[in-house]
Fold:
Amino acid sequence: MAETVHKLVIIGSGPAGWTAAIYAARANLEPVCYVGVPKTAPSPVLPGGQLMLTTEVENYPGFPKGVTGPELMGAFQEQAERFGTGIIGEDIVTCRFDRTPFELVTSGGRTVKAHAVIIATGAVANWIGLPNELRLAQAGGGVSACAVCDGALPMFRGQPLAVVGGGDSAMEEATYLTKFASTVYVIHRRDALRASKIMQERFLGKPNARVLWNKVVTDVLSAPDDHGEDKITGLQLQDTVTDEITTLEVKGLFVAIGHTPATRFLEGAGLELDDKKYIRLRSRASATNIPGVFAAGDVADPRYRQAVTAAGMGCQAALDAEHWLAERGLI
Ligand code: NAP
Structure:
């Protein structure tokens, strides 16, 4: 029996991946989408991407009353499935773009062949990199990179909590936590927030909001709780201007210091990345340096990183892939 060569494989299942799938499926490209394997540590990663970790999405057009991230991604998936997208719950761990058709190795150890590939693997949360931070994050000790996922847990209710970072994510997470916490401290390494004015104001307008300026976290302090489980008790902070060391009592730490694109599986594949490891695109199109390999969404967009821009890029990538396949007589 002849070996199957897919016309198009899509890697990733956020707004970019699903939109690419909808367009490609409607164009009869019979796309197969590798949606990934859920991961919990060190950062939560779910099929559906970052929106699976978001409660209310208020800025996706078409939803004047808002929509939850998981609902939105569920609808994207349903629409992609309606037109016949194949869905596979594995990661792609290795890409061989030096041969045609391309070969992709799955986390299940299979090799899949495709004439064209769209990479839409998104980006995951960054950590400060302190040993106790990562240890407590992995052990459920009160350290998290996702307030929206973990902030409502009983251990955080009515407690003082900290958010590290000064961008929109930090403001969003901190604002969310004000619903549960006694006080929310935003710890920022400079004296001005990077976040947009509206997001700043939303947080700063809460009665239990505080900002600690010019501070970095140098250690996460912990002690065994009543059940003998190690839980965060506070933070050691260093002032970036005076070097003064202080401690802050908190029962939760939420790290919101940006994201890293999910491109590690592309190491050695010959794909051009920028200095922050985002995929480099050719001008406004979704083409990469490798003909037949396209990219869309946060994995190729260090600038906008919005659900709606990712969806738009997914559409572009599907149209570009269709055009590329047609030009070569592969569809
Ligand atoms: P970001 O804008 O890159 O901000 C990261 C923040 O973390 C910065 O304030 C940065 O400090 C700080 N930081 C970075 N590394 C650090 C370290 N090692 N220690 C301490 N602090 C550190 O990332 P983001 O907030 O995740 O936002 C990413 C993009 O998504 C942005 O374009 C944003 O507008 C968008 N976004 C939008 C919304 C929304 O509109 N609803 C929500 C979330 C995110 P410096 O300021 O000193 O560099």
About this structure: The chain has a mean pLDDT of 94.
